[in-house]
Structures are given as C-alpha cells and as structure tokens.
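Incident log, structure service

09:12 report received: a user says their structure output differs between two submissions of the same chain.
09:20 pulled the input from the user's history:
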Amino acid sequence: MTPMIDMSFLLIAFFMVLINFSEADQNERIKLPVSELAIPPNEPPTTILMLQVLENGNTIYNNVDFDLAALKAALEFRKRHLASIGVEQGTVNVIVRADMYCKSEKVQDVIDLCQKLGFENFKLRAKQQKDH
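09:34 re-ran on a clean worker, output below:
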C-alpha cells in the first residue's frame, strides 16, 4: 500500500508542475477588448511583469491596486530586485491587460512610466474575436 501512496503523491506533484498558471494572473474585474488581430503567442514569455489597468486608471500589480505614484514605487522595487538576481531589464516582458472601458491615455501613462524605468518590451492583451 505504501508504494501506491508514494506513486500517487509523485503523480500529483508531477501534474502540479505542468499546470498552466497564466490564467491565475488574470483578474476577473478586467474585461478585455475584442480584436480580430489578437492571436495567442507562439511561445510563452520568460520573464514577465503583469500589469492590469482598471477602468478608473488604477493598475493591479501582484494582486494589489495601485495609483500611478504608488505603482512607480512598486516597479522601482521590482527593477532593483531583477537587477539583484541578474535579470536584464531589456529581457523583461511587460504584459498590459487593460479594461475595454479604460481610457487609452491611462494605459499610455502606465506604459510611459514603465519606459521611464527602463522596461522596453510590451505586450498588450485582447480577446480573440470568435466567429458565430
């Protein structure tokens, strides 16, 4: 009986490693816009920084709502952390998920802030348009 229990725990651990946690980073308050041009990426980005812009312009980062000033402090901390572990900022992919009702100037403010901090690679998320 013991080997069977051991094997069960090994299988559970194996499947836990294989689970795709990309859905876990998404907040249900964000309603993505629909686009014909939205296609899933060919391969997942390696180092990511997920920013989710709400309708009011606040940004969710690490499951916490930030206004622009507080977001700057949080991203500066993240920048220092990445540097301390040897990750180059140019390799970080900033994924921006903006609510469909958020004004584009709010999204641009978030992107401008990231650019001032040295982040260069941006990916905007949208839902694929489904044929009916």
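09:41 both user submissions now match this output. Likely a transient worker issue. Closing.
09:42 reviewer note: Residues 22-128 form a domain with the Nucleotidyltransferase; domain 5 fold (CATH 3.30.420). Strands lie at 34-35, 47-53, 59-61, 64-66, 92-98, 121-124, 127-128.
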